[in-house]
Automatic annotation (TrEMBL):
Keyword GTP-binding: no
GO molecular function, one term: polyamine binding
SUPFAM superfamilies: Periplasmic binding protein-like II (SSF53850)
Keywords of the record: Periplasm, Signal, Transport
Gene Ontology biological-process annotations: polyamine transport
Keyword Nucleotide-binding on entry: no
Name the UniProt record assigns to this protein: Spermidine/putrescine-binding periplasmic protein
GO cellular component: periplasmic space
Localisation per UniProt entry: Periplasm
Length: 385
């Protein structure tokens, strides 16, 4: 029988084929540029059923978030190109408007840059009747000032629609016991046996969690044991690589890997020797967010785009996102056991216990000086290898 992932790929191809044949890009009612695999294809039919509509979609996927960020930059540059004070105040070229998507997927870690570069615009939330159901920590993630800094009195810059964690994956066939927390990665048996993402905030962050600190700790010099802990951890690591950190684990070359849940969860069903855990002291969170590209011709989102955002928080979508995208919906804790699919509620990597979730952190933006402090420390440690 086909796996859930292969079945999903088949459905996705069929859905894309139907969409492509049903409308041209410029004629679509709703144009979305999204991260590949972050939206279940089944949701398109469900959306039309939900609203008794016949909405035509243009879903254009990208493999990585940086590609979507670059797309926002491109649209901004094109608008600037066709907007000049010396020219008459006219609309952009006819094709320009249709090229800009209504909504784009952006990771929360890119949100500050997008705001500072004027790539996206605030969104009016008056038609989001599900917004008030969204837990405050998700609302606070996207309410920011015009510098992209979280601010409860700021604007709403996006809508979180799925989220995940940083996990530890390990080879149960190589290790005697289980890995339960970050501190287990310092075990001498794992020396030169770990691979992980090459991200200063993640590496320093997990070390801070070991020390009962937050991922967002500032003034690192005030934590005297941090450097020695990082030096000891560096000896444990064989590979730093944000793209290929799981291959050594699959091959048995390393016995533990640290990376993002949407990468790790799919391999668990294919390799029974690999287990994954959310560290008991908490971990970092990430979120994919719908944002509205800056569009000189359109200052507000269309009604159909507003409906799509609100629809992504409906109970049916909570299950679909959690079941088919290797991530969770931000509304997952709002549903009771009877409303959630068994495959979702029984998966501790998707449905986190409150005792663990409350110890987790979104990686918040730092000032330029604080960023330099993190990078400087990280490079000093990494280069001693």
């Amino acid at each position: 029988m086909p796996t859930r992932r292969s079945f999903l790929n088949i459905i996705e191809l069929l859905a894309i084929g139907q969409l492509a044949s049903g409308c041209k890009k410029s004629d679509a009612d709703l144009k979305i540029s999204l991260l590949k695999g972050s939206v279940p294809p089944q949701s398109l039919k469900l959306f039309n059923q939900y609203f008794s509509s016949n909405t035509s979609f243009d879903f254009h996927s990208r493999a990585q978030l940086i590609e979507l960020f670059n797309l926002l930059e491109y649209w901004k540059s094109q608008q600037k190109k066709y907007t000049n004070d010396s020219w008459p105040r006219v609309s952009m070229l006819p094709s320009q408007k249709s090229d800009i998507s209504d909504l784009v997927t952006l990771g929360d870690s890119w949100l500050t840059q997008a705001i500072q570069k004027d790539l996206i615009q605030p969104i009016t939330i008056s038609s989001w009747h599900n917004w008030h159901k969204l837990p405050s920590y998700w609302q606070n993630l996207v309410i920011r000032d015009q510098n992209g800094i979280p601010n409860k009195n700021g604007f709403v810059w996006g809508a979180p629609y799925r989220w995940g964690t940083t996990l530890i994956a390990y080879r149960a066939d190589k290790l005697d016991g289980e890995i339960k927390d970050w501190s287990d990665l310092w075990d001498p048996k794992l020396e030169n046996r770990i691979s992980l993402v090459d991200q200063p905030r993640e590496v320093i962050g997990l070390t801070l969690k070991k020390l009962n600190k937050s991922y967002n700790t500032k003034n690192l010099k005030n934590i005297p044991q941090l450097r020695s802990e990082l030096q000891a951890f560096n000896k444990q690591v064989k590979y730093y690589n944000s793209q290929y950190y799981l291959q050594p684990l699959l091959m048995g070359e390393v016995w533990a890997s640290v990376g993002w849940s949407n990468d790790i969860i799919p391999i668990l069903s294919r390799n029974r020797n690999i287990k994954a855990v959310i560290p008991s002291s908490g971990t970092s969170l990430w979120s994919d967010i719908w944002v509205a590209p800056k569009n000189n011709n359109i200052s507000t989102l269309s009604e159909i785009a507003q409906r799509w955002i609100n629809f992504c928080w409906e109970p049916e979508m909570v299950n679909l996102i959690s079941l088919f995208t290797n991530a969770s919906s931000p509304m997952i804790n709002n549903l009771n056991n009877k409303q959630l699919f068994p495959e979702v509620i029984n998966n501790p990597l998707l449905c986190l216990q409150p005792s663990i979730f409350n110890k987790c952190d979104f990686i918040e933006p730092l000032s330029i000086e604080e960023q330099k402090e993190y990078i400087k420390l990280w490079l000093e440690i990494k280069n001693t290898k």
